[in-house]
C-alpha cells in the first residue's frame, strides 16, 4: 500500500479552504495535538493563499509521514509563478509586496518543524513544510 | 443538398411524414415518468418546438449535433435541461425527454405505421444519443449553478448579527472562514452598527477553526472601521490553541480588547455603557 497522499490543485479561493480541510484530516490521522493541528492548518492556509495570490495558482501535495514511532504530515506548495527575488526580504516579518500583513511566510515558518523554501525568479516557487507528532 | 456525413438517408422524409404520430407518442412517453410534475400543455409545447428544431437540423443533411444546423436544437435542449435541473428532476428524468423520441420512432417503424429503413433508424438513434449526452452536460452545469447559489444563500443565512442588549451587537463566527465569508460577516456587522446606532460590537470566534493572516486582517479592519463609526469592538472566544497560533504567526491585536468568553465580553460592554452586572444574593 502506498503512503496516503493527496494532490490538490489551487486555482481559486475555495481551494484554499479545501487544502485546510485536507491538512486538518491528515493532521488528525498523524495524531497531532490540537495546538499542532491548528498551527499546521494555519501555516498551510498561508502558503496555499500565497500560491494562489502570488504564484498565480499551483498545486498542493499533502502526505502522511511515518518515521519510527513518530508520525507527521508534509505539505508542499508548488507554483510556476514569478518566483521570489529576495528570499530574506520575503521572510521578513511585516514585509509584503501586496496588501497583506507580510506575516504569512515568516509566520508559517515559525508554526512548523521543518520549512523549506525554494524559488527561482521566472520559474516558480516551492514551499515544503513538515509537522511531527510529539 | 449537401450530405456531411456521406451517408444518405431518408430521415428527413421520415420525420416529416411521421410528425403527428411521432410527436404525439413522444409526449405520451415523456409524460408518464414525469407524472404530472410538468403540465401536459407545457410538455406538449416544449416537445413540439424541439421536434421542429430537430427536423430542421435533419433536413439540413448534417448529422453532427455540434454543427450549425442544430444550434436551435441545442439551445432548446439546454433551456429544457436547465429548467428540469432547477425544478429538481433527476438526470435520467431529464434525458428521457430525448431518448423517448427514439422509442417512439422504433415503435412506429415496428408497427409499420411509418416507413423507415434500418439505416434511418440507426442514424436517428445515433443523433438522439448525442443530443441526450448534451442534456446531461447542461443538466450537470445547471445543478452546479444551483449549488453555488445555495452556498451563497447559506452564507447570507449563517452570518447572523444579534442584539445582545440595548446598544450591544454580537456576531458569532463559525467554522472554516474563507475570505468571502469573513467579508460578508464584517460588512453585515458594520451595517448593523449603522442601522441600530449601537455603541458596542462583539465578534465571537469561539466556533472558528483557525485564524490566519487573512482572517486576522479582516478582523482588524472591522474593528478599526467600527471605531471610526464611534463604536467599540471586542473580540471574544479566542481559545488557547488559536491564541498560540496567532502568537506564532506574529499577529498583534494591539490595543483591541479581547475577552475569553462571550459572557465576559458582554459584561465588559455593559460596564462601559454604565450598567453593572452583579449577582442577586450579593445585593445589599
Ligand atoms: N508563491 C509565491 N510566489 C511569488 N512571491 C511570493 C510567493 N509567496 C510569497 N511571495 C512574496 O513574499 C511576500 C511575503 O509573503 P507573506 O505571505 O509573508 O506576506 P503576504 O502574503 O504579502 O501577506 P500575508 O500573508 O500576511 O497576508 C509576498 O508579499 C510576495 O511578494
Ligand atoms: Mg501571504
TrEMBL record, chain A:
Domain Histidine kinase/HSP90-like ATPase: 35-134
InterPro entries per the UniProt record, alphabetical: HATPase_C_sf, HATPase_dom
A Pfam family annotated for this UniProt entry: HATPase_c
Signal peptide (residue range): none
GO MF term (any one): kinase activity
Sorted UniProt keywords: Kinase, Transferase
Presence of the UniProt keyword Transferase in the record: yes
Top-level taxon: Bacteria
Listed name of the protein: Serine/threonine-protein kinase RsbT
Native source species: Actinokineospora diospyrosa
From TrEMBL, chain B:
Keyword annotations of the record: Phosphoprotein
CDD domains (UniProt xref): STAS_RsbR_RsbS_like
Domain STAS: 158-269
Classification via Pfam families: RsbRD_N, STAS
SUPFAM superfamilies the UniProt entry points to: SpoIIaa-like
PANTHER family attached to this UniProt entry: RSBT ANTAGONIST PROTEIN RSBS-RELATED, RSBT CO-ANTAGONIST PROTEIN RSBRC
Full protein name: RsbT co-antagonist protein RsbR
Originating organism: Actinokineospora diospyrosa
Amino acid at each position: 500500500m502506498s503512503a496516503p497522499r493527496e494532490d490538490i490543485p489551487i486555482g481559486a479561493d475555495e481551494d484554499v479552504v479545501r487544502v485546510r480541510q485536507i491538512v486538518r484530516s491528515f493532521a488528525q490521522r498523524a495524531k497531532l495535538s490540537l495546538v499542532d493541528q491548528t498551527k499546521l492548518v494555519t501555516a498551510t492556509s498561508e502558503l496555499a493563499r500565497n500560491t494562489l495570490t502570488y504564484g498565480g495558482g499551483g498545486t498542493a501535495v499533502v502526505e502522511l509521514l511515518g518515521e519510527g514511532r513518530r508520525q507527521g504530515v508534509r505539505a508542499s506548495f508548488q507554483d510556476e509563478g514569478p518566483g521570489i527575488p529576495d528570499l530574506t526580504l520575503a521572510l521578513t516579518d511585516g514585509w509584503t509586496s501586496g496588501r497583506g500583513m507580510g506575516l504569512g511566510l515568516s509566520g508559517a515558518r515559525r508554526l512548523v518543524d521543518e520549512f523549506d523554501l525554494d524559488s527561482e525568479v521566472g520559474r516558480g516557487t516551492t514551499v515544503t513544510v513538515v509537522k511531527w507528532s510529539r | 443538398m449537401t450530405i456531411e456525413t456521406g451517408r444518405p438517408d431518408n430521415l428527413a422524409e421520415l420525420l416529416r411524414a411521421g410528425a403527428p404520430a411521432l410527436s404525439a407518442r413522444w409526449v405520451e412517453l415523456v409524460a408518464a415518468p414525469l407524472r404530472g410534475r410538468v403540465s401536459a400543455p407545457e410538455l406538449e409545447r416544449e416537445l413540439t418546438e424541439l421536434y421542429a428544431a430537430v427536423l430542421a437540423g435533419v433536413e439540413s443533411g448534417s448529422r453532427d449535433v455540434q454543427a450549425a444546423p442544430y444550434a436551435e436544437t441545442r439551445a432548446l435542449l439546454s433551456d429544457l435541461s436547465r429548467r428540469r435541473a432547477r425544478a429538481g428532476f433527476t438526470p435520467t428524468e431529464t434525458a428521457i425527454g430525448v431518448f423517448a423520441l427514439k422509442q417512439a420512432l422504433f415503435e412506429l417503424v415496428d408497427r409499420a405505421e411509418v416507413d423507415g429503413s434500418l439505416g434511418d433508424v440507426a442514424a436517428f438513434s445515433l443523433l438522439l444519443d448525442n443530443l441526450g449526452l448534451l442534456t446531461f452536460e447542461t443538466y450537470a452545469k445547471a445543478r452546479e449553478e444551483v449549488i453555488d447559489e445555495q452556498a451563497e444563500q447559506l452564507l447570507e443565512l449563517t452570518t447572523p448579527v444579534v442584539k445582545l442588549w440595548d446598544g450591544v451587537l454580537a456576531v458569532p463566527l463559525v467554522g472554516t472562514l474563507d475570505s468571502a465569508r469573513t467579508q460578508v460577516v464584517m460588512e453585515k456587522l458594520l451595517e448593523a452598527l449603522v442601522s441600530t446606532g449601537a455603541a458596542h460590537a462583539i465578534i465571537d470566534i469561539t466556533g472558528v477553526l483557525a485564524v490566519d493572516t487573512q482572517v486576522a486582517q479582516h478582523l482588524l479592519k472591522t474593528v478599526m472601521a467600527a471605531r471610526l463609526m464611534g463604536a467599540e469592538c471586542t473580540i471574544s472566544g479566542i481559545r488557547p490553541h488559536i491564541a498560540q497560533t496567532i502568537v506564532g504567526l506574529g499577529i498583534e491585536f494591539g490595543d483591541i480588547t479581547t475577552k475569553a468568553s462571550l459572557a465576559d465580553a458582554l459584561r465588559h460592554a455593559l460596564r462601559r455603557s454604565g450598567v453593572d452586572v452583579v449577582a442577586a444574593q450579593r445585593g445589599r
